[in-house]
Automatic annotation (TrEMBL):
The gene is Ighv348_1. InterPro entries: Ig-like_dom, Ig-like_dom_sf, Ig-like_fold, Ig_sub, Ig_V-set, IgHV. The keyword Transmembrane helix does not apply. SMART domains: IG, IGv. Residues 15-111 form the Ig-like domain. This is HV348 protein. Keywords: Adaptive immunity, Immunity, Immunoglobulin. One of its GO terms (cellular component) is extracellular region. It holds the Pfam family V-set. GO terms for biological process: adaptive immune response.
Amino acid sequence: QLRLQEAGGGLRELGDSVTLSCRGSGFTFENHYVRWYRQAPRGRFEWVSWISHYSSQIQFGSAVEGRATASRDNSHSVASLSLHLLRAGDHARYFCAVRTETRNPAEAEHK
């Protein structure tokens, strides 16, 4: 059974940094782009980042561009997202996700 387990986060001060992790199981982790989304307290859902199979491509949403880094360790089936210089607008619930369909995720992303 496909499973993603997130960790990290918690309360942070403005200007601090935070690292979130996402561990996959039940599927071949390296075969999937990993995406990050967030949902603000008022319910707005926003794409944050994606990272390709072997980290050759990484993209970020405009709200975090220049303040975020993403990485993955396929040998441990873990992806990470770090946010720096935290702002009030970063207060949200964060989710990691993978696609289970076959079309190119880079082409399908965020449309």
